[in-house]
Amino acid sequence: VAVDKKGNVFVSDINKRGIFKLAAGATAATELPFPGLNYPFGIAVDRDGDLYVVDCHRSDQCATGKVLEI
Description:
- This protein is an all-beta fold.
- Helices cover 0% and strands 54% of the residues.
- A four-stranded antiparallel sheet has the order 1-2-3-4, with no helix packed on it. The protein has a three-stranded antiparallel sheet with strand order 5-6-7, with no helix packed on it.
- It is globular.
C-alpha cells in the first residue's frame, strides 16, 4: 500500500495481478492499466508522484521499476 501527497491510495493485489487506486474522497477503487503483471507485491510513490511496483515472475526473480507517472 502507498499513499501520494494528494491522498490517493494505491494497492498492489497479487491475487488479481493488478494495481488499484482509491482516489482521495472516493468510495470505490479503480484498476490501473498495467497488463502483464505476474506477482505485484510491493508498491511505492515518490515525492514527485511517480509510482513504483515490485513484480515477480517467481519468488526468486523480482524486478523493480517505475511503471507509471501520476
